[in-house]
Amino acid sequence: MNATLARDWMRAAAAAIAADADRLTRLDSAIGDGDHGVNLNRGFTAVVAVLDQELPGTAAEVLVKTGSTLMSRVGGASGPLYGMALRAAGKALPATPEVSPADLAVGLRAGLEAVGKLGGASPGDKTLIDAYGPALDAFEKAVAEGADLATAAGAAASAAEAGAQATVPLRARKGRASYLGERSIGHQDPGAASTSLIFRALAEVA
Ligand code: ADP
Ligand code: MG
User: Fold this and answer.
1) Dihedral of the CA atoms 198, 199, 203, 204 (nearest 10)?
2) Ligand 1 pocket test: which of 36, 71, 173, 194 has the largest number of ligand atoms within 8 Å of its C-beta?
3) Is the pLDDT reported for residue 75 higher than 90?
4) What pTM, to 2 d.p., does this model score?
């Protein structure tokens, strides 16, 4: 992955989030405050504008810039969480023009650890971690087996979608949805849904 591909990934993610903003907001209306689609759409629109203005020289910088923009533009829980994840991922990548799928796996692992540290959620708490974790496991496994970026990203996207689907029967234990207790059961977690859009976007551009 080089800087151009990293920017294409963020553009594709932004387009997918814009197209699905209403669905994300509906999911958040069921178990939260109905702003997830609006929050992320605002943030990723700003990201595209920033990256259009000046393309950084490395994929690492693209991800750091994306994360910083999300942190400053997105309110709610998801701005800091996605922002920290992408910044941590970018900081863990080598500052070279081209990074390998194995490098990206290391970066994405650092991103997941940052989310865990900031939000304190564990797998099964019905958060975006329940899509991100399985996606990253699938990505790492594919890379270890010698897959190219497109194949590894496709496996990650499918695992993220399955993980997001699997949040439906869970009871939320973190974030706003946890206030609902039992009543959070039966709805998909909006952050897990948006995470699967971001992994699917990578599979589309890779
Ligand atoms: P808010 O909950 O502040 O309105 P959003 O609606 O934008 O923020 O984002 C909600 C999503 O953020 C949830 O669906 C969940 O996936 C994620 N989330 C919330 N709290 C946490 C946490 N502590 N750890 C990981 N993810 C979280
Ligand atoms: Mg919300």
Assistant:
1) -20
2) 36
3) no
4) 0.97
